[in-house]
């Protein structure tokens, strides 16, 4: 006779319980742990075995059996955390709710954000209690992040255009991400740099002596990650045209050239437009205004800044330019392309979801 395993507790949902569970599953603000428990109960109510439910929801048969038994005994209340041994709670649910509400919807009179001490004083709680509640709900009043939304009226079209080049480049063509890194300063520290020692990081003075600036024009080849660079002391139309001529010389004649670049005025002058008419294999694709994150060369600029410029010491502009050329040459010996993965529709869907969270955003 085949084994049937342990007998499972029969689970039957009332209409009210089913509606509540399905509502929690659909709600975006429901904690993931609670949503999983609701899905387990809904699946068990369909008559599936613990093993089937576990395989479907990525859980374990033991966990499914535990939540099934607790729901049968305590109904929806059984899906919460059961009381643990120890002293009674000193903070009520109402106090926790008040703390979370106050954190999200107000600021102190004498500061821009709450601290654990100021919130504890405001509500008459201990600092450790405020800290525990904030950690439990993922609240970090001391932190803030910056963002910028593009107001370009052709934002959607430009996103589709640029991302389309990344994900499905044209045949017999090279795609380059182009931009200028202007005002790169040659900085000499006011005192000698102290080298790193065991237990002591490298140290340098906070003040410096300026020796001048330079501008790097760079084109990142999307397919290979190689970079074509050109250094100039200024970044006018003349310098940009010289850089275009360099690209024209270095790219094989039989290939079209697609350039992804921003809306800087230098890229759109009559002289540049005239040059483009004389070189029909060049095609310019502009990113939306305020959307430098779409240009992959910006990521490469960050690499250059972190590994060469930020901690560099240069007594002259010529020394700075030589180090930049050397770094580009070293990069091109083992280039690493940046792989774009998001489609335009995924980006726009994510942006729409973000806008829905901003109360005064407009469609």
Using the coordinates above, name the CATH class of the largest domain. Alpha Beta
Number of domains: 3
CATH topology-level name of the largest domain: Nucleotidyltransferase, domain 5
What share of residues are in beta strands? 5-15%
Would you list the SSEs in sequence order as H and E? HHHHHHHHEEEHEHEHHH
Mean pLDDT across all amino acids: 87
Continuous helix count = 13
CATH structural architecture of the largest domain:
2-Layer Sandwich
Under CATH, the homologous superfamily of the largest domain reads: Ribonuclease H-like superfamily/Ribonuclease H
Q: What's the number of extended β-strand segments? A: 5
Helix content: 40-55%
What does this structure look like?
44% of the residues lie in helices and 13% in strands. The protein is of the alpha/beta class and 363 residues long. The chain has three domains: 15-79; 93-137; 155-194 and 202-345, Ribonuclease H-like superfamily/Ribonuclease H (Nucleotidyltransferase, domain 5, 2-Layer Sandwich). Helix 2 (32-45) crosses helix 3 and helix 8 runs antiparallel to helix 13. 20% of the residues are buried.
């Amino acid at each position: 006779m085949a084994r049937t395993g342990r007998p499972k507790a029969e689970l039957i949902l009332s209409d009210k319980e089913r509606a509540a569970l399905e509502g929690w599953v659909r709600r975006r603000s429901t904690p993931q742990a609670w949503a999983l428990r609701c899905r387990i109960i809904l699946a068990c109510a369909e008559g599936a075995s613990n093993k089937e439910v576990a395989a479907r929801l990525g859980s374990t048969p033991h966990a499914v059996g535990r939540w099934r038994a607790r729901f049968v005994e305590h109904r929806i209340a059984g899906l919460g955390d059961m009381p643990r041994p120890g002293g009674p709670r000193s903070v009520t649910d109402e106090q926790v709710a008040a703390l979370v509400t106050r954190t999200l919807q107000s600021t102190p009179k004498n500061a821009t954000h709450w601290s654990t001490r100021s919130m504890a004083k405001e509500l008459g709680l201990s600092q450790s209690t405020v800290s525990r509640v904030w950690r439990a709900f993922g609240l970090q009043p001391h932190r803030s992040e910056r963002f910028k939304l593009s107001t370009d009226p052709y934002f959607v079209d430009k996103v589709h255009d640029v991302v389309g080049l990344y994900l499905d480049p044209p045949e017999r063509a090279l795609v380059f991400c182009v931009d200028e890194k202007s005002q790169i300063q040659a900085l000499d520290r006011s005192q000698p740099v102290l080298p790193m020692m065991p237990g002591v990081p490298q140290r340098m003075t906070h003040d410096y002596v300026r020796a001048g600036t330079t501008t790097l024009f760079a084109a990142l080849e999307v397919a290979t990650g190689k970079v074509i660079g050109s250094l100039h002391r200024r970044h006018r139309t003349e310098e940009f045209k010289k850089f275009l001529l360099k690209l024209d010389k270095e790219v094989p004649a039989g290939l079209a050239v697609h350039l992804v670049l921003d809306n800087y005025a230098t890229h759109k002058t009559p002289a540049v437009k005239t040059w483009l008419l004389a070189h029909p294999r060049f095609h310019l694709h502009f990113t939306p205004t305020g959307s430098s994150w779409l240009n992959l060369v910006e990521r490469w600029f960050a690499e250059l800044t972190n590994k060469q410029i930020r901690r560099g010491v240069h007594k002259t502009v010529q020394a700075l330019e030589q180090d930049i050329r050397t770094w580009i040459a070293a990069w091109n010996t083992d280039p690493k392309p940046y792989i774009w993965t998001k489609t335009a529709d995924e980006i726009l869907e994510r942006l729409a979801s973000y806008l829905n969270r901003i109360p005064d955003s407009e469609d």
